[in-house]
Amino acid sequence: MMGGGAGTARERINLGLARLRGFQDLIGPDARAVSFVEERARNVAERYSINEIRIPLLERLELYQRSSGETSDVVEKQMYAFADRDEAQTTLALRPEGTPGVVRAYIDAGLDRSDPEQRFYYYGPMFRRERPQKGRFRQFNQFGVEIFGRADAACDAELMIMVDEFRRELGLEVEFEINSLGDATCRPAFRQALLEWGRAHLDQLCEDCHQRLERNPLRLLDCKNDTKLAETAPRSSDYLCDPCHQHFGTVEELLSKANVPYVVNPRLVRGLDYYTRTTFEAVSKAVGAQSAVVAGGRYDGLVEVLGGAAVAGTGFAIGVERIALAIEADRFKLDGAPDASIIAMGERATVTAMDLARTLRAAGLRIEMLSPERGLKALLRRADKLGAHFALIIGENELAQGVVQVRDLKNSAQQSVPQGDIASHLCSALNR
Ligand code: HAM
After folding, report:
1. Which one of 75, 91, 202, 206 has the largest count of C-beta atoms within 10 Å of its C-beta?
2. How far apart are the CA of 284 and the centre of ligand 1, in A?
3. pLDDT tens-digit profile of 350-396?
């Protein structure tokens, strides 16, 4: 089909070439919005002295089964998994989240034993075969932070303070919802209480909850079908052992002192199985139903479950596209506009124009060379459409005089400027 023309959208669908459902092409301002969120998150993470980690997109499926949890929706229903071509036909999976891979990498590097206190951040695509809707995609980016070797409540609070700083920089309103799920000491009693409550309300539970009841009763609290019924369920806060109670109290106190707005949501259980003690979500009203823009919590047993030492862990992940939606991609529309578009009339002028473009780019300006094959009028229209501030015009006359016509497209003015002065002329006009 190459060279045969793109065809209509319908033709492309019939040819089986259409983009997959839930996967996005991010073009221009949409891509810039996502890059902007990533860049801001990086800046904040660097200020907290956190190191970058890059981990593979593919791992063994088993890694996610053991960590995210076999009964979690993510592992049970949403994995992109397939058999490899090796003899054993190892089952591989595209990562649905970053935490398990980071924990595996941490253990593989021997850090759990040699130097357990570590702080990492990561950025990149995750894959979940969810039902697509606004703010929910099958490929999306997370910016995540994972901290190892810190069991104290101050670390949980610091992570939320960090998220709060990040969202303030973006001018985004969020509310933090926090909860404690207890630990290995007190969780079993809470789980048992939920199981008994579920069995007592069997006839009122939805179909999904019937499944959840025996396999993972904590998820009963997550039921979206009957939130009224879930209100009557046992609350984890009533079952916390003393150390868990104290830990949560300290988190609350530190958040209040730092002026982080939060509410305690006793139904916040999170969709992944590894959480212990503190869990949290940052919720924005600007994204619609998919309102959790950041989520995370403590996972103290996970390093050990994956074969490492008994090291505490805690972290969060930012849903980058959700944040980009919440801060409105519109404001990025003009960000990519050139400072100047260069219009060269004729071959000789093109050589000079390319030289000029190099000089201006070296001065830090954003310069676009327009095609020398079109007429002046069409090129000026094009420069205007791109949002360029200036058009720089070079023809035979300008070459002969060693000047450039500088047309200010924003203020409809034009003047002739010596070639050697263009960089300083533009920089001062643009306040650079
Ligand atoms: P999660 O709640 O599954 O947690 O995802 C974190 C964030 O990723 C969500 O709050 C949301 O903003 C975004 N997200 C999740 N699924 C989608 C989707 N289908 N489309 C768009 N955005 C999505 C985790 O992944 C944990 N690993 C977080 C964590 C790190 N906990 C401790 N450390």
Report:
1. 75
2. 14
3. 999 999 999 999 999 999 999 888 899 999 999 999 999 999 999 99
Tokens (6 digits) for 217: 């009763």
Contact 336, 28 (CB under 8 A): yes
Is the distance from the beta carbon of residue 294 to the nearest atom of ligand 1 less than 6 Å? Answer: yes
Cα of 385 from ligand 1 centre, angstroms: 38
Ligand 1 center to residue 142 CA distance, Å? 7
| SS percent in the chain: helix, strand, coil, step 5 | 45, 20, 35
Task: Provide CB contacts within 8 A for 109, sequence distance 6+.
Answer: none
| Closest C-alpha to 389, from 356, 372, 413, 373 | 413
179-238 residue pLDDT tens: 999 999 999 999 999 999 999 998 888 888 888 888 889 888 888 777 788 888 999 999
Beta bridge partners of 148: 118, 313
What is the token pair recorded at 127? 């894959």
293 lines ligand 1 (CB under 6 A): yes
Residues ≥6 apart with Cβ < 8 Å to 209? 198, 220, 223, 225, 226
Which ranges in 287-338 belong to alpha helices (H)? 302-305, 320-326
Q: What is the CA(141)–ligand 1 centre distance, in A? A: 9
* Helix (H) or strand (E) segment spanning residue 51: strand 51-52
- 193 alpha carbon – ligand 1 mean position (Å): 28
Residue nearest to atom 8 of ligand 1 (CA): 319
CA 299 to the chain's CA centroid? 21
What is the best residue among 95, 140, 142 to mutate for testing ligand 1's pocket, by most ligand atoms within 8 Å of CB? 142
Ligand 1 centroid to Cα of residue 80, in Å, is 16
Partners of 315 in the beta sheet?
146, 297
pTM value is: 0.90
* Closest-lying ligand 1 atom to the alpha carbon of residue 144: 30
Chain CA centroid to CA 50, Å:
17
